[in-house]
Amino acid sequence: MKFLKKNQNNQTYTYTQEQNLRRLSSESLDDVLREFGSTVHGLTAEEAAVRLEEQGPNIVKTKKQHTIVSRIIEALVNPFNIILLIIAVVTYITDVVISDVKDYATTLIILLMVFLSSVVAFIQSRNSDKAAEGLKKMVANKTDVIRNGKIVE
Question: Which of 4, 19, 43, 152 is deepest in the core (most CB within 10 A)?
């Protein structure tokens, strides 16, 4: 099993890691312990300190929070709005540019639809981020380990 070294940029879950987990789940306890260089009594505090220094902390990384600007752009740039904007451009050309009678109403209504769609998408994105944050607070990211033969958090 290959561990990531501290300060390595590629610290993401990969298909190879999934294959290793599947393989290890079907092996005996002794084989798994040998693979990880451990025993049923766990690691000593010294061994744990060495591994911490070599491999870095075992931290669950979370996705960065969306900024307001990125949320607005995300809300504006979606397939529905792009289609509406294309329709608005065609309508503007046919109803304003090449028409004898200038009619801005349809173009403005379509642009209003783009605006309202973006507002709804922005609000939904913000609400889903808040809900996800609430769920994260409910999940404990701590586990018990064996150090020097004793269970510690």
Answer: 43
Q: Which residues contact 117 (CB under 8 A, 6 or more apart)?
A: 78, 80, 81, 84
Return the structure tokens found at 117. Answer: 């769609």
Q: Residues 105, 149: contact at Cβ < 8 Å?
A: no
| Continuous H helices in the chain | 15-25, 29-36, 45-55, 68-76, 79-92, 105-138
> Taking the model in full, what pTM does it have?
0.56
pLDDT, the chain, mean = 83
My answer on whether 104 and 76 are in the same domain is: yes
What is the amino acid identity at position 49? A
Q: Are 76 and 111 part of one and the same domain?
A: yes
The answer to whether position 95 is within a domain reads: yes
Domain of 19 in residue numbering reads as 1-61
Q: What is the pLDDT of residue 2?
A: 47
Q: Supply angle C-alpha 135, 137, 138, rounded to 5.
A: 65
Specify if 21 maps to a domain: yes
